[in-house]
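Lab meeting prep.
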Amino acid sequence: MKENMNAKKYLIKYFLCLAAFFFSLSGFAQSNSAANYPIRPIKVIIGFTAGGPTDIIARVLAKEMTLNLGQPVIVENIAGANSMIATNAALNAAPDGYTLFCASLHFNVNPILKKNVYKPLQDFVAIEQVANLPMVMVTSPESPYKTVNDVVQAAKARPGVINYAISGNGSSGHLTAEMFAEEAHLQMTGIPYKGNGPALMDVMAGRVDFMFYPIVGVPELAKNNRIRVLATGTKARSPDFPGVPTMNEAGFKGFEDTAPWVGYFAPKGTPESVVKRLNAAITKALANPEVITSIKNLGAEPVGGSSAEFQAFLKADVARWTKIVKAANIKDE
């Protein structure tokens, strides 16, 4: 009986030692893999269709990251559901640095509007913020509104009558307009559209009073007198719009923070060494004059910085939009 007990104890110790050995092997393999990263192609998921600002920026950076990392960086578009499909695909990917997520404003706003979805600050690792797309306040060239104050005075005189176009519930234009209404104590009506394109067309035609629009493509429209820019959501005046004041100059502070951003993420659990390697590759890409020119040609502003800086920005961004969503009582569609 005693011999059987000893044999059992021996077997238990044997299997425990064996398990510890294989566990250490697994840890060594993972550590070794991270140290040699990358050893195969890297996929970057985007939640929008090809050709949009986020897609263009990601493809410009992918080319440079390929050179900097020594492995192909491939962009994959998974559009739909305000980028939720792409977000879930990235969320469920292996945390090994071979599936990244290039996201924008919806990444932070979706969890504010929707229940039981991912947590942006907990479920992902922030790698780097790469660009901002400042918002501009625009109206028709034939509009009676020449300044931001003209819109404010008209809205105060006719509560609920002045309207603005939005490209969807919780979109950058929607949130910025609600922020504007909150700060100016205005009652206005949002007119929803299926995308920024048709929304802008109706503003240009004078069918809607104004809208806040990401800067992409607006300089050319303004140059050809197809649109009037009332103010820019930038820290300093934009050289693309001579004589146009910033929102700050118009009396509204903080609108430079409404700019839809573009940034890179990895699933939670991605090794820190891999995150640092990716951050270094992106930072190097953003230092390339050709990349800077490509981003600025979109009207965007290159950003860059550390993973920690991006994480701090995201925390402030979530807090800002949570406040606006609650104040405006914006609901999920």
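Slide two material, second protein:
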Amino acid sequence: MRKSVLFIMLMLGVSMAAQAQKFAFIDTEYILEAIPAYKQASEQMDASAQKWQSEIEAVAKTAEELYKDYQAKMSSLSESQRKQKEDAIITKEKEVNELKRAYFGPEGELYKMREKLLTPINNAIYEAVKALAEQNGYSAVVDRASASSVIFASPRIDISNEVLAKLGYSN
């Protein structure tokens, strides 16, 4: 009997604490689509990535042509000529890998460009969400775009439009 009363009191306390918390949702994809600076940054990054990819593909094609030429002439080449052609192929393949790393690697140009162009936008969104959360007393604000476990959230608690308004964009 005593355990039952204690359990009921505990459940009552937990339910009261859960009701006291306020939650809100945002959709960062929706917010980012409404920000022109984000669209421009994305287009700029895409254009650069395509340019760099074309450059890499050109060098890779050169390496492939060197290899095909080597295979076609391999039987008629001397040992030193074979070694020279093999070294040229290896050098081109290394160049391809170095370009990939320089442009698309963890510290590559695309990463640096993303940091330069998107970090200010993401920081502004964070600050707007933080200000709205403090102003309205939200205990947590969950991003619907990245929270794959959220199956349904009421549109009443979606504050994406308020975030856009706070950033100076109306939608």
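Talking points for slide two:
Residues 13-167 form one domain.
The chain is about 75% helix and 5% strand.
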